[in-house]
Amino acid sequence: MDWIVYELIQEVGRGSYGVVYEAAVRQTGARVAVKKIRCHSPENVELALREFWALSSIQSQHPNVIHLEECILQRDVICIAENFIWTTLKPIFSIFRFFCTLRFQIFK
């Protein structure tokens, strides 16, 4: 990715596929999330392209979908820039998993 466009502020997440950074667009100061996905395997490339295609096809149809800024393929890395949000879905999934487990135990 042309890092001149973005100023990386901090790393906000790391996983098996890559790293997510909070960044700012140098011209406007707008906050974006930059996902750097390592492309050492076909699965990683497929994952990144699937996210790109999904976001690009539905973002204009619903206002609550993350806005895709750009997607750039570099050697061994795909970078996806999208609007930055300060939360994750992990807590929601944890609560959902807890209630599903509880419900299963009650009705067992």
From TrEMBL:
The keyword Disulfide bond does not apply. It catalyses: L-seryl-[protein] + ATP = O-phospho-L-seryl-[protein] + ADP + H(+); L-threonyl-[protein] + ATP = O-phospho-L-threonyl-[protein] + ADP + H(+). It is an enzyme of class 2 (transferase). One of its GO terms (molecular function) is protein serine/threonine kinase activity. InterPro entries: Kinase-like_dom_sf, Prot_kinase_dom, Protein_kinase_ATP_BS. Keywords: ATP-binding, Kinase, Nucleotide-binding, Nucleus, Serine/threonine-protein kinase, Transferase. It holds the Pfam family Pkinase. The keyword Disulfide bond does not apply. This is non-specific serine/threonine protein kinase. It comes from Sinocyclocheilus grahami. The lineage of its organism: Eukaryota, Metazoa, Chordata, Craniata, Vertebrata.
